[in-house]
Specification:
The complex is a heterodimer of chains A (about 400) and B (about 475). Chain A has about 400 residues and is α/β, with parallel strands linked by helices. Chain A contains 13 helices and 16 strands. In chain A, the strands form two sheets. In chain A, strands 1, 2, 3, 4, 5, 14, 15 and 16 form an eight-stranded mixed β-sheet that branches. In chain B, helix 5 crosses helix 6. Classes of the chains: A alpha/beta (about 400), B alpha/beta (about 475).
Chain lengths: ~400, ~475
């Protein structure tokens, strides 16, 4: 937090982007707009020219959007997928590990940060994997600064799985997953009531240590959503039912068959994270996957977040959104699914996710349609700072640039 | 391989059996029986005639006709050109107004059928992980023609694929080149007349993920050299036998030392594959990420006298672009994959474009049942990365990365891969610019036959596996 303050204070003159098409992130589009960024914030968004000092950027023919947001990845937790020593996204300490905190392992200096930021991704949720409850996810801003580490005490979601990925952790059956979840919630509620007795060492032993049960308290107190991977329609309904019976907020990750239960998801306001390019029967839990799932979910009123599904290539977010559009999702909804929707679901909706006066100036200036493959991010701002778009990949390309 | 079997049969003074059902595959004088080498399916010539008019026609052969037309007849491209033509009688006319026609996409690197979906161990048949060197296995023999990915690949505009064994073996086996006409056997999907490829692999996958494999890259190179040395010796023995057999046949009965023809060397199915690589009949495809390893493999191929046709994955092709270009070795890569393993850490989006600028032959491949569905988009990204880097990459050039260049790599560029008169009618009609994220294939013709129609779900074949599954057709 002090780091954020420090960054804000170093901002000097305002930046004024003129004559730009603004795709706000909430579905609205403003043509020939002027956007003023000052003190790390969006000061104004309007149609009238603004008088005053500052750096003026000609936005003619260009598009300004909010910074793109990846709703779940392992950014900063993995450098090279198959090099174990560079991975901090999973600790094999049993199937239930709510006290595992992704933030503890986050590396802001990861080479993945600038590579993805150069394509307009400014924030991401970075979360753990594995088991039934993998631990807590954190919000990360992709400044790459060592002064910008996430606060482990402020997670944005508890992450788990009731999908095939947890089958082994359930000792080989979905029933094994659910019995452990029932025990976890039972123990958490028992613990919540008897914390004082536990502190005195005056209670029966529970499945997990107090450290883990403490980490579950924000979930049952509805301060932290439980993000559950679920793909089969019946698994998704079971997750929704868990939310109802425990009075907690559920977010569905994966959601291959979510379109089949779209009405339940909409009625319970259960958001879904899915990857449009991966809607195929890749597993028995996904036999009903279909390409137009994002369109069907959006039409049913489900809050949809689009994921790149790929930590090294969060930069594919906009391609994934574009694919969803190709398969019938309204374009405005697809852009919202990589900006405003994840910001709102993970508690950053007042700060981020739209180009709105007063919000933090996390912005991207694109050479054209941000979802198009040949469009590039010309400028990327986080908290009003123009970020470097140089990457190790670009430096490699330069080193081997073909001779004329 | 078919060439060699024909040669042996001719040597034996006997015509090759035709592709009839009961034709014997065993020639009494040929050294070996050839049961696995069943004949190719007959050429497909029965497709109805179709004329696409008023479309933008991107030929991948240097020309774009806007507007242009393409006439398909008898499974072949009969005419393609600018403007429009009077429809010949009996031809179905398809309007291409506002649409774009390209050659069918060819994926040089697929595991469809051998690592099918749903992804279950029981159907994972891509790695014959019993020995580091298994040139005797054929991907065709593991190909599951009911893989639901086949239909989805066609819907992505893909008309031909090379199915490769996986990468946990130094030498993984023969590839299977298929036309995507859904069928109930692999052989019926075989690309008639296409040479087979040989899958080889360098680097991490072999040393880290296979059983009984070499522990180091040193051991890997020793393993390839040992295998090819054995192949040289095997080929020598086969040639010696062919000469002895020819001499025996020319001799009068009384001059023969034996009534029986001379015995061939014991048949070795693996060395047979490698001998055909040495003879140029089977095209070697080498999975290799790092530039230094590609250099090593080029040197090794020179040592044993064969030519690597293409490197696959080749994330560091940009570091030896000049050599790949001058030695005419293709490189199949992705637009943006990187970092999934140590040897993939230096992958860059400019890779394909840098190789193209050096005069090389880049290919955008999939290696993935998801990626194969939007190879046009991947080519677009690689093209955009090159242009943003200041390299002049034309649309036609980028289109070649997914059509003409893979056709060359798998040895079928004389038959498909561009829109030119006389080539196979492997054609995609897109509902817009194929390099736009919003564009989808609308109609896909393979050998002139309509195998996919976005507006008509009855066209094409749903795999047996998907038939009757819950929620097809929107049921809850």
């Amino acid at each position: 937090m002090s780091a954020a303050l420090l960054l804000c204070l170093t901002v000097s003159a305002p930046t004024i982007i003129v004559d730009v098409r603004v795709e706000v992130g909430d579905g609205r589009v403003l043509e020939h707009a002027t956007v003023v960024v000052d003190g790390g914030r969006i000061r104004s968004v309007g149609s009238a020219p603004v008088a005053g000092d500052g750096e003026t950027i000609d936005g003619r023919g260009k598009v300004l959007t909010p910074g793109l947001i990846e709703p779940l990845s392992q950014i900063g937790l993995t450098e090279i997928s198959q090099v174990e020593s560079t991975r901090d996204d999973s600790a094999e300490i049993g199937p239930l590990r709510p006290a595992f905190r992704a933030a503890d392992g986050f590396n802001p200096s990861s080479a993945l940060v600038p590579v993805n930021r150069a394509h307009g991704v400014t924030s991401a949720v970075s979360g753990p994997r594995g088991g039934i409850i993998a631990g807590s996810a954190t919000w990360v801003d992709l400044t790459g600064s060592l002064d910008d580490r996430p606060d482990p005490a402020r997670p944005v979601a508890m992450v788990g799985s009731v999908a095939e990925s947890a089958h082994d952790a359930g000792n080989g059956a979905r029933g094994g997953i659910w019995l452990q979840l029932r025990q976890l919630f039972g123990d958490t509620r028992f613990y919540a009531k008897k914390r004082a007795a536990f502190a005195r060492g005056d209670s029966m032993p529970l499945l997990l240590s107090p450290l883990h049960l403490e980490a579950m308290l924000p979930v049952i107190e509805r301060r932290l959503p439980l993000l559950l991977e679920a793909n089969r329609a019946s698994d998704i309904l079971a997750a929704v039912e868990l939310g109802r019976s425990e009075g907690i907020d559920i977010v569905i990750l994966g959601g291959a068959e979510a379109w089949r239960v779209a009405s339940e998801l909409a009625a319970t306001r259960t958001p879904v994270i899915l990857r449009p390019s991966a809607q195929t029967p890749v597993a028995f839990e996904a036999l009903a996957a279909r390409d137009d799932a994002p369109a069907l979910l959006a039409a049913a009123g489900v809050t949809l977040m689009i994921s790149s599904g790929w930590t090294h290539n969060l930069r594919r977010l906009r391609q994934e959104a574009g694919l969803a559009v190709a398969y019938g999702m309204p374009r405005a909804a697809a852009l919202r699914a990589i900006t405003q929707a994840p910001a709102q679901v993970f508690g950053r909706g007042r700060e981020l996710g739209t180009v709105t006066a007063g919000k933090r100036a996390d912005l991207v200036l694109w050479s054209g349609d941000p979802l198009e493959l040949q469009t590039r991010a010309e400028m990327v701002w986080i908290r009003g700072h123009a970020m470097s778009l140089n990457t190790r990949q670009r430096q490699l390309a330069e080193r081997y640039r073909p001779r004329e | 391989m078919r060439l060699l079997s024909v040669m042996l049969l001719v040597t034996a003074g006997c015509a090759a059996p035709a592709g009839e059902r009961d034709a014997p595959l065993v020639d009494p004088l040929a050294p070996f029986v050839q049961p696995a080498e069943a004949p190719d399916p007959p050429a497909r010539t029965g497709a109805p005639s179709v004329l696409i008019q008023d479309a933008t026609v991107m030929t991948a052969a240097g020309k774009t006709f806007a507007p242009g037309y393409i006439l398909m007849r008898g499974g072949l491209i009969e005419a393609v050109g600018p403007g429009r033509i009077e429809p010949p009688p009996g031809v179905t006319v398809v309007s291409g107004k506002g649409k774009v026609v390209t050659p069918g996409i060819i994926d040089s690197h697929s595991h469809i059928g051998v690592f099918p979906i749903p992804s279950v161990e029981a159907n994972a048949d891509g790695n014959e992980d019993t020995s580091p060197v298994t040139p005797e296995v054929w991907a065709e023999h593991a190909f599951w023609p009911q893989d639901p990915s086949i239909r989805r690949a066609i819907a992505g505009g893909v008309t031909a694929i090379q199915v490769l064994p996986g990468s946990t073996n130094l030498i993984g086996g023969r590839s299977f080149v298929a036309k995507l006409h859904p069928a109930t056997s692999a052989r019926a999907m075989r690309f008639s007349g296409a040479p087979q490829g040989l899958k080889m692999a360098c680097g991490e996958n072999v040393k880290l993920y296979s059983t009984d494999a070499p522990a180091t890259r040193m051991g890997s190179v020793a393993g390839y050299r040992r295998a090819f040395q054995e192949a040289l010796e095997y080929r020598r023995a086969l040639r010696r036998h062919a000469k002895e057999l020819a001499r025996w046949k020319l001799q009068a009965d009384e001059d023969r030392e034996s009534e029986d023809p001379p015995d061939p060397p014991p048949r070795d199915l693996g060395l047979e594959t490698l001998a055909k690589v040495l003879d140029g009949e089977i095209l070697p495809h080498v999975h290799c990420y790092r530039a230094d390893e590609m250099h090593l493999m080029l040197d090794l191929a020179r040592e044993f006298g064969f030519e690597i046709r293409s490197f696959h994955h080749a994330l560091e092709a940009y570091k030896l672009a000049d050599r790949l270009a001058s030695e005419n070795v293709a490189a199949s890569t992705w637009s943006d994959w990187w970092g999934f393993k140590m040897e993939a850490y230096d992958g860059i989006p400019e890779n394909a474009a840098i190789l193209a600028a050096a005069g090389g032959r880049p290919i955008i491949h999939s290696d993935s049942a998801d990626e194969i569905r939007h190879l046009n988009q991947e080519a677009a990204k690689a093209m955009a990365a090159g242009r943003q880097f200041g390299l002049a990459i034309s649309d036609d050039e980028a289109l070649r990365w997914i059509t003409a260049n893979p056709a060359w790599a798998i040895g079928v560029d004389d038959r498909t891969g561009t829109l030119e008169t006389g080539k196979m009618a492997d054609v995609v009609l897109w509902n817009g610019d194929p390099f736009s994220v919003y564009t989808l294939a609308e109609k896909v013709y393979i050998d002139g036959a309509l195998e996919y129609d976005r507006s008509d779900p009855s066209v094409g074949t749903l795999s047996d596996f998907e038939l009757g599954q819950p929620a097809r057709g929107g049921d809850r």
